[in-house]
Amino acid sequence: MTFLNYVKEKQEWFNYELEAIVNEFNSPKRLKESMLYSIKAGGKRLRPILMMAAYEAFRPIDKKVVHPAAALEMVHTYSLIHDDLPAMDNDDFRRGKPTNHKKFDDATAILAGDGLLAGAFHVITTSNFLHAEEKVYLVRELAQASGPEGMVAGQMLDLEGEKKSLSLQEMDQIHLLKTGELIRFAIRAGAYLGGAIPPQIEAIDEYATCLGLIFQIQDDVLDVIGNEEKLGKPIGSDEQSEKSTYPKILGLDETIKKKEWYMEKAALALKTAKVNHEILYDFIDYLGNRDY
Amino acid sequence: MTFLNYVKEKQEWFNYELEAIVNEFNSPKRLKESMLYSIKAGGKRLRPILMMAAYEAFRPIDKKVVHPAAALEMVHTYSLIHDDLPAMDNDDFRRGKPTNHKKFDDATAILAGDGLLAGAFHVITTSNFLHAEEKVYLVRELAQASGPEGMVAGQMLDLEGEKKSLSLQEMDQIHLLKTGELIRFAIRAGAYLGGAIPPQIEAIDEYATCLGLIFQIQDDVLDVIGNEEKLGKPIGSDEQSEKSTYPKILGLDETIKKKEWYMEKAALALKTAKVNHEILYDFIDYLGNRDY
């Protein structure tokens, strides 16, 4: 199976399961509609698919990974809803559709985000496919990755950084927290659930960290040289804002070199971990060379 | 020891532990300050103390209850921060101090709330005093009580209800979800951790449900006949708003009778459960007849 077929197959399976899970919440109509609106808005489902791929590196795919992957995507979706709010990034559109607060209102969007965040931990702890130790591992790691030492910390630093020019180190730190932590969780938790032993999880963790940075660097690159039609959003917006980006600090050539260096490092990390799952190697290329 | 001394002693112990727990988060300075600001803003610590009292009905108090109680207060605090936002209730003051978004800004307040919510689940799952089964129970029940079928559902219904006149049943439903669920969690989780068996937990659950309604009814009563100085806020604000309240629907006399009926029902539930912990009986009086 080609890599893109693999992704497509996993997306379809996961979308079906995710919608069913969120649909099960017995919530007031408007709250449920608001949560489902953003859950159904799509996206690449990168994090859940990475979790499944890491799982498959150690064990054939089964239902065990469904609830953790759904919880992860719920947390990612909550963060997008809150990030788009007028008080934060103030975005009216995401993936070509009105953002949650534009479709509903600010209050509903805040509550939909809160509901998805708390709901994610409910989904993990009520799963029939996980035993108690696994649930504790997943809640602890997901709360760590998404909470005040993880993604939320990254969002705080990102907001503060908008007004000043950042060093390369400061920018790496923001991305490692804001997007990197959930990507690390995806891969670590997938490997853990698949039965990886601790040294294997630590080795695959370096791969995950590189992948998060590759993803972000390519985001910055596409804002300079991307195709607006493929991206579905205007390019050059970073240039106009005061936001620090890799191309602004390093120049475009050095930024691309940096990305390629992380791509090599990610592949080496997999090799060192003796993880021979082709799909994980393919992800390096996919994220590093994507054009949308 | 008198009831008020009991409450004061527990408050002091708990405040010390809670601040230490939140202070341990390795978060960006501004995020940490914002979380600690609302955590330190005080309040009666009603929910954690109810949890401790329910625990003590079955076993002498010890450190086992500290992290669950802290997580509960973190969730309660996050809900106040988000509730006060301009997009929600738009309150500038709480307990005589500027609300979180007035002291910091809207974006920081959103993130502080998000951080406290995710952080609460981290506090439970990293506790050294709980085994895996207890952690799963606590995360599941807290996520249920605070999430899209619990407190967040209540907040959604509350917002929608502001614009129309509600039936008694609709108003009960909002309060059961918005404030009742966390109070139920406090008491159920305390009894569970203390070693109560399932039928005891179910019996004490009725006490908890009554307590939540007593709390809310007295809130409405105080807005009509309270002492502004003792309350620390102006009275009569419900009368001026379109908000549905018990006195508006039932009249003041019937409202007070309803409260007394729940107070008797709560005491009977304790008796039926054969829970002979005096402090739990005292709480009925305390919440039903409080003047602040």
TrEMBL record, chains A, B:
Cited PROSITE patterns: POLYPRENYL_SYNTHASE_1, POLYPRENYL_SYNTHASE_2
Keywords of this entry: Isoprene biosynthesis, Magnesium, Metal-binding, Transferase
Any GO BP: terpenoid biosynthetic process
Superkingdom in the source lineage: Bacteria
Names of the cofactor(s): Mg(2+)
Record-linked Gene3D superfamilies: Farnesyl Diphosphate Synthase
Annotated catalysed reactions: isopentenyl diphosphate + (2E)-geranyl diphosphate = (2E,6E)-farnesyl diphosphate + diphosphate
Presence of keyword Protein biosynthesis: no
Gene Ontology MF annotations: (2E,6E)-farnesyl diphosphate synthase activity; metal ion binding
Xref: InterPro entries: Isoprenoid_synthase_dom_sf, Polyprenyl_synt, Polyprenyl_synt_CS, Prenyl_diphosphate_synthase
EC number of the protein: 2.5.1.10
Gene Ontology CC entries for this record: cytoplasm
Family: Belongs to the FPP/GGPP synthase family.
PANTHER family on file: FARNESYL DIPHOSPHATE SYNTHASE
NCBIfam families referenced in this protein's UniProt entry, alphabetically: FPPsyn
Protein known as: Farnesyl diphosphate synthase
